[in-house]
Amino acid sequence: MPLGARTSEVAGQDIVFEAVPYAALSGWDADDHLAAFRAFVRSAPALARASTSSGATSGKTCVAGAALLSAAQRAQQEAPGITKPEEAKAFFEANFIPHRVVHDRNPGLLTGYYEPVLPGSREETGPFQIPVYRRPPDLVNLVAEAERGALAGGLTHARRTADGTEPYSTRAEIEAGALAGQGLELVWLSDPVDTFFMHIQGSGRIRLPDGTTIRITYDGKNGHPYTSVGRYLIDAGLFSADDMTLDALKVWLSADAARGSAVMQENRSFIFFRELQNEDDGPLGAIEIPLTPGRSLAVDTAFHAIGTPVFVTAPDLCPWTPNESFARLMIAQDVGSAIRGPERGDIYFGSGDEAGLLAGTTKHAGSFVVLLAAAGGLA
């Protein structure tokens, strides 16, 4: 094993975290470290809450250790005095050691997600006929929410019964009325494809008829494994991988309502939502960390603990400035059922159509350098 390397206690000996100097990180000096620092500080309260939570993890995923928790606490304490990018850069360099992720698994891949803004109503009226449901009272977690991405191959949630638990209703069963009449309707939307993609994104901002907006966020799922309908159509020979984008998929699903519904129901997973009382608190990632556009990253917690800073590079990804390759410090603040692997990341791009366009066209090779907290900081 290389000097200064660590192995993943969860993943096994085929994943190595190899220490490298900051000088070896191309693009490190040019990044806006203050933006990354502010995103990191937003993790601190949630990490503290999670560290004292009674909800045990399965032992199969990474959790924030003492060093990361201490670094987050120091960041929160020092935040008032850190107002310049160079001060934030110094904080990271004093408290973290960069590690390259060495493995022989799938190459690094970056995709994107966003918060859609959709018209809706609190009542079933006019065009608003598609219910968005609250979390049912008989839904129970089989794994901790932060683990639902890493352990998404099996059931993550179930229905509590008098005899124990059983699999919850599938997407097709719920859409056929399995939850009707229980008063679980949170809001009503008008477009089935838009509703489906809000489920995939895990959050949404709903524009009500009176012009006000509310923000709704993930509050559990039916527990069935996620199936990518894009991959389903590619495997069926109806799309090439190069032609598959979010917009192209939406057009195809919308072109024939019955055909689109049948394909969307291939994804048996179904999401439940709750309304945020303070719109400014969201959207929320794993363990209810507020997300920051362009700085929050969904990761596989089989390899990376929530809250970990990750320097992400993707030479062919230029989302904001043409010919300016993506190289920035991000914070692991979310998970996703499709985010599987040591260098698999999902970039949060923000709210609205522009963010959706960026997210829908992001599918690029990328690499991770993980910043692992040094106990007590570096001398």
In short:
This protein is α+β, with helices and mostly antiparallel strands and about 375 residues long.
Q: What CATH architecture label of the largest domain applies?
A: Beta Barrel
**How many E strands?**
19
Question: Count the helices. How many?
Answer: 9
- Report the uncertain regions: 1-5, 7-11
CATH topology of the largest domain: Barwin-like endoglucanases
Give the overall shape: globular
Please give the alpha-carbon distance between the first and last residues: 25 Å
- Structural classification: alpha+beta
CATH homologous superfamily identity of the largest domain:
RlpA-like domain
Percent strand: 25-35%
What is the averaged pLDDT score?
90
Going across the major beta sheet, what is the strand order?
1-2-3-19-15-16-14-17-4-18
Secondary-structure element order, N to C: EEHHHEEEEEEEHEHEEHHHEEEEEHEE
CATH class of the largest domain: Mainly Beta
Defining traits:
379 residues; alpha+beta; Barwin-like endoglucanases; Ribosomal Protein L25, Chain P; 2 domains; ten-stranded mixed β-sheet; 9 helices; globular
